[in-house]
Design goal:
Blueprint: H1 6-17, E1 24-25, E2 40-41, H2 52-72, E3 82-86, H3 89-104, E4 110-111, H4 114-117, E5 127-131, E6 135-136, H5 139-149, E7 152-153, E8 162-164, E9 176-186, E10 199-204, E11 207-213, E12 219-222, H6 236-249, E13 257-268, E14 275-280, E15 283-287, H7 293-308, H8 324-332
Parallel strand pairs: 1-7, 3-10, 8-15
Antiparallel strand pairs: 2-6, 3-5, 4-5, 9-12, 9-13, 10-11, 11-12, 14-15
Length: 333
């Protein structure tokens, strides 16, 4: 196994449970997106036009998360749902467009009064959609629990089969780093815990932000996305935009302590879907999960282990075949 992020370790844990001999190799554990991710398990809120196959894979993985989380212990698994909100007329039009997509795909999403569900939100919001089936988890707790169950080595092993799960560092694959910045805040002692219960994703004047509440009072804020190569530098502009938009959405955050600002690298592919399957008789790809790595961990672990055991995966992997981009290129030549 090449890669000790949530994807690689989840596959290793599953494979070990099926009796396979597994070695996880990573020269720099913890450098990937797993330690930075917000942990939204949100196949509905993340659903987007032209990504029907990815949606089905995401829904299949979400259905496996309760058992997956139970096997790891307390990893901050919560089922409060996602609240999507809009403020301006343009924001509202985007919300209406997404609601039609959810309706067309028969996804659970319905109109909601944002302030009725979350009184701490700004009164300037125009509308909201509630996705009750979306969940969340704390990726750092997941990663720590997996590390307790799966040892990692810095020496490259000699293996019969290698699973490439190195995220944007996966060699020879059409995977690029997508820079994303995330902030962590905590309430001042006098403020108590934050009032929001749902994950809140907002469109405010065309800017997109998400606010993820943790049970211990921490709040995770994010949504930046940029092409900056392998740089993990946190930018002043990114922090400013995230704070300004988050405080506009939830004014009480202005009294919170900023405890961390980090940037991570999402492993993006040309169509935003992962690369899952055999590359050759000794190599399997399990990478390119982009912003869905935490959500897709259980199903990825399941299908890759099935391949290692020469079994038929429970889901169709054809839309995620590692060679699909080469095929498209040859058709266009």
């Amino acid at each position: 196994m090449h890669g000790a992020g949530i994807i690689g370790l989840s596959i290793a844990w599953r494979a070990l449970s099926r009796g396979l001999d597994v070695t996880v190799y990573d020269p720099d554990p913890g450098r990937g997106a797993s330690n930075v991710a917000a942990g939204m398990l949100a196949p509905v809120a993340e659903a987007y036009f032209g990504e029907a196959s990815l949606l089905q894979l995401s829904l299949a993985s979400l259905s496996r998360w309760p058992a997956f989380a139970a096997g790891l212990g307390d990893v901050g698994y919560r089922t409060d749902g996602t609240l999507l909100v809009a403020r301006t007329g343009d924001d509202l039009r985007e919300l209406v467009r997404l609601r039609q997509l959810y309706t067309d795909w028969r996804l659970p999403a319905h109109k909601a009064d944002p302030r009725e569900l979350e009184p701490g939100l700004t009164p300037r919001l125009r509308a909201g959609l509630l996705m009750p089936g979306d969940h969340q988890v704390d990726p750092r707790r997941v990663l720590a629990a997996l590390r307790e169950r799966v040892p990692v080595t810095g020496q490259l092993p000699d293996a019969d089969v290698t699973v490439l799960a190195g995220g944007c560092w996966t060699p020879g694959m059409p995977v690029r780093p997508v820079h994303g910045e995330v902030l962590r805040l905590r309430p001042a002692e006098r403020s108590g815990k934050p009032t929001i219960r749902h994950v809140v994703r907002g469109f405010l004047d065309g800017k997109h932000v998400y606010v993820v509440p943790r049970s211990d009072g921490e709040v995770v804020v994010g949504a930046t996305s940029a092409e900056r190569g392998f740089s993990t530098a946190v930018t002043a502009e990114g922090v400013r935009d995230l704070l300004d938009t988050a405080i506009e959405l939830l004014p009480e955050l202005g009294e919170f302590e900023l405890t961390e600002a980090r940037a991570g690298l999402r492993p993006g592919t040309p169509d935003n879907a992962p690369l899952l399957g055999w590359l050759d008789e000794k190599t399997i790809a399990a990478t390119g999960h982009y912003r869905h790595g935490v959500l897709l961990a259980p199903i990825t672990a399941e299908v890759i282990t099935a391949l290692l055991l020469d079994q038929e995966p429970a889901v169709d992997l054809a839309p995620f075949a590692p060679g699909r981009f080469e095929c498209r290129s040859s058709l266009m030549d």
